[in-house]
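Model: You mentioned two targets. I'll fold them one after the other.
Researcher: Yes, keep them separate.
Model: Target one:
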Amino acid sequence: MCSHFDLSSLSENVLIANRGEIAIRIARTCKKLDLKPFGIYSDADKNSLHIKYCEKAVDIGGFTPAESYLNMNKIIEAANALGCELIHPGYGFLSENPDFAMHCKREGLTFIGPSYESMSITGDKARSRQVASRITSIVDGGEVSNEVMAMDLAEKIGFPVILKAVQGGGGRGLRIIRSFEELKEAFADSKNEAMISFGSDRIYIEKYIENPRHIEVQVLADDSNVIHLGERECSVQRRHQKLIEETPSPVLTVEMRNSITKTAIAIINEMKYTNAGTVEFLFKNNKFYFMEVNARIQVEHPITEVVTGVDIVEQQLRIALGDGLMIKQEDVKSKGHAIECRINSEHPLSFVPTPGTITKFLTPELEGIRIDTAIYSGYSIPSFYDSLIAKVISSANTRLEAIEKMKNSLMLLRVTGIPSTIPFHISALNDARFISGNYDTSFIDELKPFSSKDGEMAAALLSLLPKKIEFLNKDVQEMAVDPWAISRFDTIDLFNSNYNINKWVR
C-alpha cells in the first residue's frame, strides 16, 4: 500500500476500480493531469504492482471477481473512504454495467464513461442491434427466450447460427451452431453460462458469418462532438478473444475507411453516446456488418494512441470533468503503423490458462516498443482473473517495419516460470498470411502445427524450462535457426533436423 497523506487537501481524486496493467495505465495519465489516482485490491492482489502507482489503495477483500472487483457496494464504499470524486472502471469487470454508472450517480460520484442511458443501449446487444440497424447493415437474427423460438428463428435464417448473451462479451455464453441437434444441446448451456457470467440469461441468435474480418473504430464523444481515431484490425483471435491487433487495417481502401468511420460516428450519435467507445464490425466480401459497441476503453487502445499521438485516457478524464474534447477531427493525423501482441499466461499450444509464479521477467528497451504490464520477477499470477500478463506494442513508419520490430522485441522478452503465448505470437508474425495482410478470424484454426510431441518440445524449450537460451555463436552454420522463432506453427522442423539443440540451452 502507498503512503498515507491528508485527503482533505485534494480537489480531484480518481478511484481506479480495476487491477493490473490498465490500473497502472490510468494512474499514469491521472498524474500527468495532476489528478490523484487511488486504488483498490482484492485479497488475491495484495502483491499487485498497480497498488504502488496509487496515492493510496484499500483492500476490498475477497478473491473471486464477484467478491471484489464486481462488488459495487465495496467499490462505492472505497471511493467514499478515500475521498474520491471520480471513478474510472478501466475495462472488464463493471466498466460496461449501466447499474454501476447509475449507482455512482446516486452517490454523487462521476463515472468516467458513458451515461446510464447510453450503456442501457450498448449493454443490451438486442437493443443495440435495433438502433444500429437504422444506420447500417446488421446480421439477420433476434432475441429468443426459449428453445422453440430458437429453433424457429434458426430455420428462418439458416445454419450456421451463433448464440450470444444479450448482456455479454468476451466470448462467454457464445456458441456456434450448425444443426438443430447442436442447437438443442447448446441452448440451455448458453443461457446458464450467460446467467453465471453476466447475471442475465437473455440470449439471441444471429446468422453466423464464416471467417470474416473483425474491424473496429475508436471513437471519442462529448455532449456536442464525435470524432474517430481510425480503425483497428482485430481478426487474430482464439475462442473469440483477440491475440493480435493492428492499425490501420491492411485490407481497407481509403474509401472503405471513410465509410466505416462515418458509419461508426453516425451510430454513436444515434445512441447519444459520450466518452470513449469502440464500434465493432464484421467485414466480409467488401461489406460491413455492425456487431456491437464496447462502452469503455479497449485492451488494444495503445496502438491507436501511438499512431495518432492522442492519449485516450486523458480524453476520457477531460470529458468526464466537463472540459469536453480537447481535439477536433482535423487534429487527428495518423502516422505509420502499430501492432499489439497480447501476451497471456497460457500454454502456447492449447491456450489453456496457467497461473503460477514468474521467476524472471525481462523486457527489452527498444525504440518504437511500448510494453504495458503489471508483472515483475517473483510475481504470482492469481487464478481468479484474466490471463493477460503484458501487452507489447510496436510502431514504425511501415507495416513491415512494425512486424520486424515486434518480432525482435518478442525474441528479447523473457518470461520464465510459466508458459506464455510468446512462441505463438512469433510464429504468427512469421506466417505468410499475416505478413501479406491476407487473413481473417480463421487464422489460428488454419495454422499448420508440428506433431504433438514436437510441439510440446518446442513449448518446453521456449516457455517452461528455467534455462537461459542464447543465440548461436558466429561459427555455427549460416542456416541455423533461433529457437525462439521455432514453435508449434513453423514450417522448419527443428527436432527432426541436424541442428544441435544442446548448443542453445545452458
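Model: Target two:
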Amino acid sequence: MKSNLIGKTALVGGSTQGIGRAAANLLSEMGVSIVLLSRNKEKLEETRLELDTKLGQSHEILVADFSEPSSVKRVVQDYLDQGKIINILVNNTGGPPSGSIINSSEEDFNNAFRNHLINNHNLSQLLIPGMKASGYGRIINVVSTSVKAPLTGLGVSNTVRAAVANWSKTLANELAPDSITVNNVLPGATLTERLNEIIVRKSLNQGSSEEKIKEEMRDEIPMQRFAEPEEIARAIVFLASSDSSYITGINLPVDGGRTPNL
C-alpha cells in the first residue's frame, strides 16, 4: 500500500484533531503529501510538523472555516490556481451538536447542511478536474453509522449524514467511468472530542454520571470498547490506495460491530 501512495497528494479536512488528524498522519506515513484544511492556523502548524517526511513528502496548510463554504471554496481555488493537483480528498468535519430532532431549529439543519454536504460538494467539484488530469482520484467521506440506522439523540446528524451518503453514491456512479472512486467511512463511537460532547449531553439529559453513560455505550458495542481514531484512519488509507481500485459507492462501517444491520 505504501508504494502505491508515494507521490500522491491528499487534502484532509478537519485535520487538527480526531479522525482527520489521524488520517493525515497515517497517509503521510504511506508517502502522501498532505494539505491540511481547518480553521485554526496554530493547530494546523502543530499538526503539519508531526507529519512524516521520510519519503520526500511536503506538507502544507490551508486555513478556512467550514461554516463559511464560500471561504473554503476560495482558499482551495487559490491553492489550485498555483498549478497544484490533489489526488485524494478526505471530506471530514465535526458532527452537528447532539439533540432530539423535535427540538432542532431550522438554523440547526441549515448549518449542518452547509458544513457537511455543501462543503463536500464544493471541494469535490474543485478537485475532480485535477484527479482526471492526473489519472488518479479518491474521494473519501467520513460520515456516520447513522446512515444505516439512526442514532438516538442525534436528530440533525442522522438527517444530514443520510443526505451526504446518497450524494456520495450518486457521485460515485457518475465518476466511475473515470476510475475515480467515491466511498464513505462510517465511524462508530470513537475517542474524539465529538464523543465527549455526546457523553456530556447524555449525562446532563439523563441525570446520570458520565462513567455510567460510557459503560452503557460500550455495552452496545460487540467489541466492548470505543474505537481509536487511528483505527478509522486505516480504513481511510485503504480506500485512498490503489488496492481499493474496484471499490466505489460503498458505506464502510468501522464500528466494532455495533450497527444492527448489514
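Researcher: Noted. Anything on target two?
Model: The mean pLDDT is 96.
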